[in-house]
């Protein structure tokens, strides 16, 4: 009938307690719902989101960014996190709270597409022209930045690594257009005393004379900090 329920408030509270205890309405449930949302839309994800573009403007499924890898990463960063921080997947005590997490994941993907997915790249490209040339020392920084001199905020300082001037690395990816600059690289002056520029007409490096980037660097010592990953993190 329409009469009051005996001990209604207590029963509701007990019900909520059991839900949380069983993770039926908690973070595990949110993660399951988030994974299901994107899994159910895998065709759309593969054909509309995780796609890259050739220099001629043709779209193709990304080689490097795949849905299973995305879901695996979301699971790890949501459950384990990094530095005590986890990926936001929604509100466990709000009806259909996973919607907030879905929006957050979509915002992440939008930024990821802008930074890396559309280029099918996991390393920053050598893209900045200085007097109509691409300096090899762009690996030290583009847009007037010096990557090796960048620092984390105080509460993220534990993630900062010291600059190793003897480190040698070559990026995995680079721009895809014909005779585009080679992948960025770094190394000590004992290996690369001075660096020149990328000759895109010949499709090779020209180190005959030193050629400076926008900040005047003519070497790549300690310059192993170009953007990497889906968000081009430095």
Explained architecture:
- The chain is α+β, with helices and mostly antiparallel strands and 234 residues long.
- Helix content is 29%, strand content 8%.
- It has five helices and seven strands.
- The chain has helices at 8-21, 27-40, 42-49, 67-79, 98-115; strands at 51-53, 59-61, 134-135, 169-170, 185-186, 197-199, 204-206.
- The strands form three sheets. A three-stranded antiparallel beta sheet has the order 3-6-7, with no helix packed on it. A two-stranded antiparallel sheet has the order 1-2.
- Strand 1 and strand 2 form a beta hairpin.
- Helix 2 (27-40) packs across helix 5.
- The chain is elongated.
How large is the radius of gyration?
24 Å
Structural class: alpha+beta
Largest sheet: 3 strands, antiparallel
Which outline best applies? elongated
Tally of separate helices: 5
Q: Helical proportion?
A: 25-40%
List how many beta strands DSSP finds. Answer: 7
* Widest sheet, order of strands: 3-6-7
Query: N-to-C SSE series?
Result: HHHEEHHEEEEE
Distance between the termini: 64 Å
Mean of pLDDT: 91
Q: State the low-pLDDT regions, or none.
A: none
| β-strand amount | 5-15%
């Amino acid at each position: 009938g329409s009469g009051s329920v005996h001990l209604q408030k207590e029963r509701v509270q007990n019900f909520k307690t059991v839900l949380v205890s069983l993770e039926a309405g908690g973070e595990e449930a949110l993660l399951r719902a988030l994974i299901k949302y994107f899994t159910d839309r895998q065709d759309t994800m593969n054909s509309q989101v995780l796609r890259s573009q050739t220099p001629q403007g043709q779209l193709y499924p990304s080689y490097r960014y795949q849905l299973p890898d995305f879901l695996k990463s979301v699971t790890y960063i949501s459950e384990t996190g990094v530095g005590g921080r986890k990926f936001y997947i929604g509100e466990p005590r709000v009806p259909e709270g996973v919607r907030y997490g879905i929006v957050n994941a979509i915002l992440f993907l939008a930024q990821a597409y802008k930074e890396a997915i559309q280029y099918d790249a996991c390393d920053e490209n050598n893209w900045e022209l200085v007097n109509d040339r691409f300096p090899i020392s762009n690996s030290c920084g583009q847009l007037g930045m010096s990557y090796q001199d960048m620092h984390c905020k105080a509460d993220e300082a534990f993630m900062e690594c010291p600059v190793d001037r003897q480190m040698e690395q070559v990026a995995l990816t680079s721009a895809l257009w014909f005779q585009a600059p080679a992948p960025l690289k770094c190394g000590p002056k004992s290996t690369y005393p001075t660096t020149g520029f990328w000759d895109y007409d010949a499709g090779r490096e020209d180190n005959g004379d030193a050629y400076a980037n926008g900040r005047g660097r003519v070497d790549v010592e300690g310059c192993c900090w170009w953007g990497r990953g889906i968000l081009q993190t430095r």
